[in-house]
Write a structure and sequence with these properties.
Length: 351
C-alpha cells in the first residue's frame, strides 16, 4: 500500500534511516515528504517513528490548478477500519477538515482548499460517504502538502501533528519538540543498551526520547530504563521532567544534581554517551563540564554539546572533535558539537 510521512525540514535523512530500521522499507524523499510502499496492516505501526510529523495515505495531487484524485482509493474501507464509530457517522455526515501546508499566503491556501473540496465531495459521494467541512471538530483530516514539485493530497492517518508529543504536558521553553529531541539523541551516537546521561535536561524531552528509542520507538513503553539518566540543577525542571516521563510511561532516573557532583554520583567511566543542553547561564561551567565528563565517560565515549549558535565553544584537549552542525528550532538556531573522549594512550602520545 502507498503511504507517506511528512517531517520537519532537516529530518528527512533520519526518517529514511528510521523507516529502514523499523520497517525494512525503502523510501523516496521529495521535499519534506517520504513516500514508500508498506503492508496495510503495518500502517498503524508507523506511529512508532520518532522523527516524523504526519502519516499520510496519498490519494491525489493538484495539477494545473485542479485536484486529481485516485478513484481506486478505498476511502470508505479505510474509515471503517480506523474510525471505531464510523457506522454512526455513516448515517449522518463525516466531518472533514482540509489543511494546505507549505504554501505561502493564506489566500493561496484557502483557494487550493476550495479546489480540493470541489473534487473531493463528488469523490466521496461515489464511495457512498456523506461529508461536510468542519474545522472545529473534524473526524477526518485531509492534508495537501507542497513538496516543491507537486501538491500531494492525502488522508492523515493520525489526525494530528505527531512531533507535538502527548507526554509534554509540562514543557520548558528552552527544550524541544519530540522529533527534534530525537534528532539530537541520534546525533549523539547513542545506541540501544548503552548508558546515557542527559545533563541540564529541562523538561526531559531528550531523555524520554532516548527511553522510547530503546523500546523500539514504541510510545507505550514499559519496564525499567535504568541505563538512561538525567539531571538538572533546578527543582522545577526536575519535577516537570519526572511528570513528563510518567505520562510517557517510561522509567527514568531524573535527579537534581550540581555539575560538580557527577563523579561522586556515578564514578569513573560509567557512561557511553553524554548529552548536555547548555543555555547561556551554564556556559561559564564549561571547564568543570569537561572535567566531569572526562571522569564519568568511558574512553571512546561521545559527548554532545548543544548550545546557542553564537557560543564560541573551546575544545578540551581531553576530547577530539567528531562533528559540528547547526540545528534550527523555529526562529532560533542552535549549535551541535559532537566530541569523543580520547583514550589514555592517545593522550599520552600527544604529550
Amino acid at each position: 500500500m502507498k503511504a507517506a510521512v511528512i517531517v520537519n525540514p532537516g529530518l528527512e535523512k533520519l526518517a529514511q534511516q528510521e523507516l529502514a530500521e523499523l520497517f525494512q522499507v525503502e523510501s523516496v524523499i521529495e521535499g519534506s515528504v517520504l513516500s514508500f510502499e508498506i503492508e496495510e496492516k503495518k500502517i498503524a505501526e508507523l506511529i512508532r517513528l520518532q522523527s516524523i510529523r504526519r502519516i499520510v495515505l496519498p490519494f491525489g495531487v493538484v495539477a494545473k490548478g485542479k485536484a486529481i484524485l485516485d478513484q481506486k482509493f478505498k476511502f470508505k474501507d479505510y474509515l471503517k477500519k480506523h474510525l471505531p464509530d464510523f457506522s454512526a457517522i455513516e448515517k449522518e455526515e463525516l466531518k472533514l477538515k482540509i489543511e494546505v501546508e507549505n504554501v505561502k499566503g493564506q489566500e493561496n491556501r484557502i483557494e487550493l482548499s476550495k479546489k480540493i473540496a470541489q473534487e473531493l465531495f463528488p469523490f466521496l459521494e461515489k464511495n457512498k460517504i456523506k461529508a461536510k467541512l468542519d474545522y472545529s471538530e473534524p473526524e477526518a483530516l485531509i492534508i495537501a502538502y507542497n513538496t516543491g514539485n507537486q501538491l500531494i493530497i492525502g488522508l492523515d492517518n493520525a489526525g494530528k501533528e505527531l512531533d507535538r508529543r502527548d507526554y509534554r504536558l509540562f514543557p520548558q521553553s528552552a527544550s524541544f519538540k519530540g522529533d527534534l529531541a530525537y534528532y539530537i539523541l541520534r546525533k549523539s551516537g547513542f545506541r540501544k543498551n548503552e548508558k546515557l546521561l542527559v545533563g541540564f535536561c529541562k523538561d526531559g524531552a531528550i531523555a524520554i526520547e532516548a527511553a522510547l528509542f530503546s523500546l523500539q520507538g514504541a510510545y507505550k513503553g514499559n519496564g525499567s530504563q535504568s541505563s538512561i539518566e538525567a539531571f538538572d540543577t533546578t527543582t522545577a525542571n526536575v519535577i516537570s521532567a519526572r511528570k513528563n516521563a510518567k505520562i510517557a510511561k517510561v522509567q527514568l532516573n531524573i535527579n537534581k544534581y550540581s555539575l560538580e557532583d557527577l563523579d561522586l554520583k556515578y564514578g569513573q567511566n560509567y557512561f557511553n554517551c553524554l548529552i548536555f543542553h547548555i543555555t547561556r547561564k551554564d556556559e561559564e561551567q564549561l571547564t568543570e563540564l569537561y572535567y566531569q565528563a572526562n571522569l564519568i565517560l568511558a574512553p571512546k565515549g561521545t559527548l554532545l554539546l548543544l548550545g546557542r549558535k553564537t557560543w564560541d565553544i573551546s575544545i578540551s584537549d581531553r576530547f577530539k572533535l567528531l562533528a559540528e552542525e547547526e540545528l534550527t528550532k523555529g526562529e532560533s538556531v542552535h549549535k551541535l558539537v559532537l566530541l569523543e573522549k580520547k583514550s589514555e594512550k592517545t593522550k599520552g602520545n600527544k604529550k
